[in-house]
C-alpha cells in the first residue's frame, strides 16, 4: 500500500484498515516518517513509542486478516499528552519530579483507545503539570509551532496540538483545565474539544485541578473529534465524577446542520482580542447565519471574573494534588538530614517556577484566615458564572467567542509576566468553571498567515449542538477554499 | 466500685520552674468533684469498619497480612488514581449512626492536607462540616446519656515503624518502614459531647460503644489491634464557671489506660490550677510505662489542614429508602437486650450478671430457658457462671437447664449440688438434671441433720473455729469446706454459712 495517509482523516483511516484496503502498519510508517523528518525541530514528544506502535499496528492488521474487527479507531495513530498514565511507559507531566516513574496501570482513556484499535505513537510534551499556555514551562524544553517554529504552539497541551498539526499522529488527546486543549488547537490550526465535565473519565489523568480537568481530542476535522469522543466518552465507574448517563453519538449529530440553531453573541465579553482574531469571529457569525442559524445577543456578566476566580481555585486544588510528590514513594528524591528537609529539597529541585508559583498561591488561598477572602469568594464567583451561562443558554443553543485573543506568539514574548500569559485563557477559562463544553475550530488565518480558531461554547451536555455548529463552520471554510 | 489508685504516687505536674509539685492524693474514677473541681471529658473514638475492601478502592481491608500486599494505585495515591466510595462502608456508618440515635443527613467529603510519609496523597479524605451522622447519644448501662456530636467517615493512614536510636519516634530514628495495608481502610470517627464527668464514665462509654459496634457488625473494635482507637479531651473547671482549657490525650491503647490517662491528666490540671499555673491547650501523649501524659505539640504548632471540598467525590445523600432498609436490618442493641433481661429477672439492667450475659450474647438463651418453664433468675446465674466458653448459642438444650433450675427452686437440690449437676450437663452437652442428681444421691439435707453436722465440723476444726471467732473471717472458708466434705456436697453452702455466723454470735 502506498496511499498517502496525511490527506486521510481518522474516520477514513479506520474505515480503510477495517475493510482491509489500508494496512495499519503502512499508515503508521508514514506518520513515523514525518516524525523522523520534523520532530527534531518541533519537539512535540517527550517519548516516541515506535516499536510498541509497530507491534500494535501489526496486531491490528493480523486481526483484520483473521476476519476480526479491531474497532472504530482501527489503525489510527494517536498521540497522548504525557499526563495520561500508560502501563509500564514513563509518564512525566514534563516534570523532573516524576523522573523514572512508570505507572502500573493505564488511564481509562488509554484502555478505551487500545480497545478501539488505536495505535499510540508517543507521549507529548506539555507545560509542567499542564500549568501554562505556551508549553514553555516544560522541564524538557518547549514545543515549537509547526506553522512557524519561532512561535509557541500554545499550551498546556502544546505537544498534542503540534503532533496533529505536523502530521505526527492522526489524532491526539490533551487535557483542558482552563483552555489547555482549545488554545493550542487555535494556535496550531486544528480542532480541539473540551467536553462537559464528567463526559470523559479522568481516571489515570494526572490531576492538576480536579474540579476543572477534562480530557478531549485534537483532530484535523470536527468529525474525527466526534469519532474520538464517541470512543473515549461515557461513564467510568473508576471516576466518581463521571456522568452516569449514556451519551448520544456525536457522529450521528453532525449531519443535522444548523438550521434554526440559536447562536449567541456575548455582548459583554471582555475586550482585548486582536483585530485579526475579531475579524475571523465576525466571519464565523456570518457563516453560521448563512447556514441557517439565528444570531442572538446574550449577556454573561460574570464572564470577566473568570480569570481571577480560576487563578484561586485551580492553584488551590493543585497545591493539594501536587503535595503527593514528596520523594517518599516514587519519582525524584533528593536526600537530606530528615524527612521534612527531604520534602523541601526534593520539591525545590523537582518542580519548575510556574508550578511552585501556583502551589504557593493555592496554599495561601486555602490557609486559615484567608480561605473566606480568597478560595471561598472564588467559589461564589464560580457559581455566578455558571448561573449567568445557564441564563444565556435559555436564549441561545451555543455561544461564539474567540478562542485565544491572539495568534501564536513568539517564544519568550510573555516570559517575564505571568499575568500576561494567564490572559491567553481569558475566553476559555469561564467554561471550565461552569463545567460546560467548548471547542475550538480553525477558521482561517490572521496576522502573518497564522491560524485563528473560533470557540464554540454550549451548556451542560450541549455537545451535539456544539458539534453541529463546528461542522457548519468547517463546511463554510471548505467551501471558501 | 474498684478504684485505680496505682498512679497516685506518680500524680505530679511539671511546674514552670521545673520543680515537681506532688499532689495531695489520688483522683479516683467515680468522684464528681475533686477538691472542688469538676472533670469534663469528651471522647473521640476511631473505629475501623468491618468491610471487605477499603473506603475508596478494591484492595482488601484485612489486618495482619504481609506488609504492602493490600495496595493498589488508589491506596498508594499514585498520580491519576481516583477514589470511589465503598457502599458497604456507608451502610456500616449509617448503622453506627442509627445505633447512636443520630440523624443521618446528606454529607460531603473534604481533603485534610498535611505531609506525613505514611499518608500517600499528603491529604486524608474525611468528612468535615457535613458529616453523615449528627446529634445522637449513647446511653450508659446505668441510664446516663452521653451526647454524640457526630460520627463521620474517613480513611485511615498507613502505618510507620521508626527504627534505630529513637525509641519508636520519627525524630532521631535511623530509618522508617511504611506499611500501606492500612492506608485507605474505612474509619468512622465518633465524637462525643463533653458530657463525661468521671474516668469510670469514660470507661463505661467506650465499653458500651464497643459492645454496640460489635453487635451491629460495624467493627471488631479491638483496641489492642488498633481497630478501635480513643483520644480523650480533658479539662477541669469549678462548677458554675466556664469550662477550662482542654488537652487532647492520644496513644491510649486500652480501656484501662483510658481511665488511668484521664485520672492522671485531671490531677495534673488540678494541681497546675492549684499552683496558679495556666493549663495550655495542647496535644499530650499518654505513656503507658511511666503512667503520665507528655506534651506532644502545642496549639501554636498545630497544622493548618487547609480543608476544602474533595473534588474527586460527589456528595453522599442516602435515600430515605436506603436508610429505612438499613434500619430494618438492625439487630437488637445491647441496651435493649439488657432492659429485656432486667424486666424478665427483676434485676437491675447494669447488674454484673446481666452485663456479662448480654456481652456474651447469651441473653436469648437465658430467655429460652424461661420459655421452657425454667426459673429465669437461676438460669441467669448459671449461664453467667458456667457458660463462659459456650458462646451465644450454647449446646446445652434450654429445657435441660430449665429442669435443673426447677429442682433448685423446689428445694430438691442445693445450689452447690446444682453446680455439680450443671458441670456434668455442660460436659455432656445436655442431660436430665433430675436423673443426674439422683445418680449422685443428691438430696437436700434437712436442717436438723445439718446443724448436727456443723457442730461436728466445729469440734473437728477447733483451730479454724477459734480464728473465726477471733474475727478472722477468712477462716470461715475452711469450716464451710469441711462441712461440704462431710456432707459429700449435699449441704447447702449458704445454710452452712448462716449457721456458722449464728453460732459465732451465740
From TrEMBL, chain A:
It is an enzyme of class 6 (ligase). Keywords: ATP-binding, Ligase, Nucleotide-binding, Protein biosynthesis. It catalyses: L-glutamyl-tRNA(Gln) + L-glutamine + ATP + H2O = L-glutaminyl-tRNA(Gln) + L-glutamate + ADP + phosphate + H(+). InterPro entries: Amidase, Amidase_CS, Amidase_dom, AS_sf, GatA. GO terms for molecular function: ATP binding; glutaminyl-tRNA synthase (glutamine-hydrolyzing) activity. The keyword RNA-binding does not apply. Pfam families: Amidase. Residues 26-465 form the Amidase domain. The keyword Glycosyltransferase does not apply. GO terms for biological process: translation. Its EC number is 6.3.5.7. One of its GO terms (cellular component) is mitochondrion. NCBIfam families: gatA. Belongs to the amidase family. GatA subfamily. This is glutaminyl-tRNA synthase (glutamine-hydrolyzing). It comes from freshwater metagenome.
TrEMBL record, chain B:
Residues 364-504 form the Asn/Gln amidotransferase domain. GO terms for biological process: glutaminyl-tRNAGln biosynthesis via transamidation; translation. SMART domains: GatB_Yqey (SM00845). Pfam families: GatB_N (PF02934), GatB_Yqey (PF02637). It catalyses: L-aspartyl-tRNA(Asn) + L-glutamine + ATP + H2O = L-asparaginyl-tRNA(Asn) + L-glutamate + ADP + phosphate + 2 H(+); L-glutamyl-tRNA(Gln) + L-glutamine + ATP + H2O = L-glutaminyl-tRNA(Gln) + L-glutamate + ADP + phosphate + H(+). GO terms for molecular function: ATP binding; glutaminyl-tRNA synthase (glutamine-hydrolyzing) activity. Keywords: ATP-binding, Ligase, Nucleotide-binding, Protein biosynthesis. The keyword Protein biosynthesis applies. Gene3D superfamilies: 1.10.10.410. Transmembrane segments: none annotated. HAMAP family: GatB. Belongs to the GatB/GatE family. GatB subfamily. This is Unannotated protein. It comes from freshwater metagenome.
Amino acid at each position: 500500500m502506498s496511499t498517502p495517509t496525511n490527506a486521510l482523516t481518522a474516520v477514513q483511516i479506520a474505515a480503510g484498515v477495517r475493510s482491509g484496503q489500508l494496512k495499519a502498519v503502512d499508515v503508521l510508517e508514514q506518520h513515523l516518517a514525518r516524525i523522523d523528518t520534523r520532530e527534531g525541530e518541533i519537539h512535540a514528544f517527550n517519548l516516541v513509542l515506535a516499536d510498541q506502535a509497530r507491534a500494535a499496528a501489526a496486531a491490528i492488521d493480523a486481526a483484520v486478516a483473521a476476519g476480526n474487527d479491531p474497532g472504530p479507531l482501527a489503525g489510527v495513530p494517536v498521540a497522548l499528552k504525557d499526563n495520561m498514565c500508560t502501563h509500564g511507559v514513563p509518564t512525566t507531566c514534563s516534570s523532573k519530579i516524576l523522573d523514572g516513574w512508570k505507572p502500573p496501570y493505564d488511564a481509562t482513556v488509554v484502555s478505551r483507545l487500545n480497545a478501539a484499535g488505536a495505535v499510540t505513537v508517543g507521549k507529548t510534551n506539555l507545560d509542567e503539570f499542564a500549568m501554562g499556555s505556551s508549553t514553555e514551562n516544560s522541564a524538557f524544553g518547549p514545543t515549537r509551532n509547526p506553522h512557524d517554529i519561532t512561535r509557541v504552539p500554545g499550551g498546556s497541551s502544546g505537544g498534542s496540538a503540534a503532533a496533529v498539526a505536523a502530521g505526527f499522529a492522526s489524532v491526539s488527546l490533551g487535557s483542558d483545565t482552563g483552555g489547555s486543549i482549545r488554545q493550542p488547537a487555535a494556535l496550531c490550526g486544528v480542532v480541539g474539544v473540551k467536553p462537559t465535565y464528567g463526559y470523559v473519565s479522568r481516571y489515570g489523568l494526572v490531576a492538576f485541578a480536579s474540579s476543572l480537568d477534562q480530557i478531549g481530542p485534537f483532530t484535523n476535522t470536527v468529525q474525527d473529534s466526534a469519532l474520538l469522543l464517541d470512543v473515549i466518552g461515557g461513564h467510568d465507574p473508576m471516576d466518581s465524577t463521571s456522568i452516569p448517563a449514556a451519551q448520544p453519538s456525536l457522529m450521528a449529530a453532525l449531519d443535522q446542520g444548523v438550521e434554526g440553531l440559536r447562536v449567541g453573541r456575548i455582548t459583554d465579553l471582555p475586550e482585548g482580542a486582536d483585530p485579526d482574531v475579531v475579524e475571523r469571529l465576525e466571519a464565523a457569525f456570518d457563516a453560521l447565519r448563512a447556514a441557517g442559524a439565528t444570531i442572538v445577543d446574550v449577556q454573561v456578566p460574570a464572564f470577566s471574573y473568570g480569570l481571577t476566580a480560576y487563578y484561586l481555585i485551580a492553584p488551590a486544588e493543585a497545591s493539594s494534588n501536587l503535595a503527593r510528590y514528596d520523594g517518599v514513594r516514587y519519582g525524584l528524591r533528593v536526600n537530606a538530614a530528615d524527612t521534612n528537609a527531604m520534602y523541601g529539597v526534593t520539591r525545590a529541585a523537582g518542580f519548575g517556577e510556574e508550578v511552585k508559583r501556583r502551589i504557593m498561591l493555592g496554599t495561601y488561598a486555602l490557609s486559615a484566615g484567608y480561605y473566606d477572602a480568597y478560595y471561598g469568594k472564588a467559589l461564589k464567583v464560580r457559581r455566578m458564572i455558571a448561573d449567568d451561562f445557564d441564563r444565556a443558554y435559555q436564549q441561545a443553543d451555543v455561544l461564539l467567542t474567540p478562542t485565544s485573543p491572539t495568534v501564536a506568539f513568539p517564544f519568550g514574548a510573555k516570559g517575564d509576566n505571568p499575568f500576561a500569559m494567564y490572559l491567553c485563557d481569558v475566553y476559555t477559562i469561564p467554561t471550565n468553571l461552569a463545567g460546560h463544553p467548548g471547542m475550538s475550530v480553525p477558521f482561517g488565518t490572521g496576522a502573518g498567515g497564522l491560524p485563528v480558531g473560533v470557540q464554540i461554547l454550549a451548556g451542560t451536555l450541549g455537545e451535539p449542538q456544539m458539534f453541529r455548529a463546528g461542522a457548519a463552520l468547517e463546511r463554510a471554510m471548505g467551501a471558501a477554499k | 466500685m474498684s478504684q485505680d489508685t496505682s498512679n497516685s504516687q506518680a500524680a505530679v505536674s511539671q511546674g514552670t520552674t521545673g520543680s515537681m509539685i506532688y499532689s495531695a492524693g489520688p483522683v479516683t474514677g467515680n468522684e464528681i468533684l475533686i477538691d472542688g473541681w469538676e472533670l469534663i471529658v469528651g471522647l473521640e473514638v476511631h473505629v475501623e469498619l468491618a468491610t471487605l475492601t477499603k473506603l475508596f478502592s478494591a484492595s482488601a481491608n484485612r489486618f495482619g497480612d504481609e506488609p504492602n500486599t493490600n495496595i493498589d494505585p488508589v491506596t498508594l495515591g499514585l498520580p491519576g488514581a481516583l477514589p470511589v466510595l465503598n457502599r458497604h462502608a456507608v451502610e456500616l456508618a449509617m448503622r453506627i449512626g442509627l445505633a447512636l440515635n443520630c440523624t443521618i443527613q446528606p454529607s460531603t467529603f473534604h481533603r485534610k492536607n498535611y505531609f506525613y510519609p505514611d499518608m500517600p496523597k499528603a491529604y486524608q479524605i474525611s468528612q468535615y462540616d457535613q458529616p453523615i451522622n449528627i446529634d445522637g447519644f449513647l446511653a450508659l448501662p446505668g441510664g446516663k446519656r452521653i451526647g454524640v456530636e457526630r460520627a463521620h467517615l474517613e480513611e485511615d493512614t498507613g502505618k510507620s515503624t521508626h527504627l534505630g536510636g529513637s525509641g519508636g519516634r520519627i525524630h532521631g530514628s535511623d530509618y522508617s518502614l511504611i506499611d500501606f495495608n492500612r492506608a485507605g481502610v474505612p474509619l468512622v470517627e465518633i465524637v462525643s459531647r463533653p458530657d463525661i464527668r468521671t474516668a469510670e464514665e469514660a470507661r463505661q462509654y467506650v465499653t458500651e460503644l464497643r459492645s454496640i459496634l460489635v453487635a451491629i457488625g460495624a467493627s471488631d473494635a479491638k483496641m489492642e489491634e488498633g481497630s478501635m482507637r480513643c483520644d480523650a479531651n480533658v479539662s477541669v473547671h469549678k462548677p458554675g464557671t466556664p469550662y477550662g482549657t482542654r488537652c487532647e490525650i492520644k496513644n491510649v491503647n486500652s480501656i484501662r489506660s483510658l481511665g488511668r490517662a484521664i485520672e492522671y491528666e485531671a490531677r495534673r490540671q488540678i494541681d497546675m490550677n492549684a499552683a496558679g499555673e495556666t493549663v495550655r491547650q495542647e496535644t499530650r501523649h499518654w505513656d503507658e510505662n511511666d503512667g503520665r501524659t507528655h506534651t506532644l505539640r502545642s496549639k501554636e504548632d498545630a497544622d493548618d489542614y487547609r480543608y476544602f471540598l474533595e473534588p474527586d467525590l460527589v456528595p453522599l445523600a442516602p435515600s430515605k429508602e436506603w436508610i429505612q432498609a438499613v434500619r430494618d436490618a438492625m439487630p437488637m442493641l445491647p441496651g435493649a437486650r439488657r432492659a429485656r433481661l432486667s424486666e424478665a429477672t427483676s434485676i437491675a439492667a447494669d447488674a454484673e450478671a446481666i452485663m456479662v450475659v448480654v456481652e456474651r450474647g447469651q441473653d436469648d438463651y437465658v430467655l429460652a430457658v424461661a420459655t421452657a418453664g425454667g426459673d429465669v433468675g437461676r438460669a441467669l446465674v448459671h449461664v453467667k457462671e458456667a457458660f463462659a466458653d459456650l458462646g451465644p448459642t450454647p449446646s446445652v438444650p434450654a429445657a435441660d437447664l430449665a429442669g435443673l433450675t426447677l429442682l433448685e427452686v423446689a428445694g430438691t437440690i442445693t445450689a452447690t449440688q446444682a453446680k455439680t449437676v450443671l458441670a456434668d450437663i455442660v460436659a455432656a452437652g445436655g442431660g436430665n438434671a433430675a436423673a443426674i442428681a439422683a445418680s449422685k444421691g443428691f438430696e437436700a439435707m434437712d436442717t436438723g441433720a445439718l446443724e448436727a453436722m456443723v457442730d461436728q465440723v466445729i469440734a473437728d476444726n477447733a483451730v479454724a473455729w477459734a480464728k473465726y471467732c477471733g474475727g478472722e473471717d477468712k477462716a470461715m472458708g475452711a469450716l464451710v469446706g469441711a462441712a461440704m466434705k462431710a456432707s459429700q456436697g449435699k449441704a447447702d453452702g449458704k445454710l452452712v454459712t448462716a449457721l456458722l455466723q449464728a453460732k459465732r454470735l451465740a
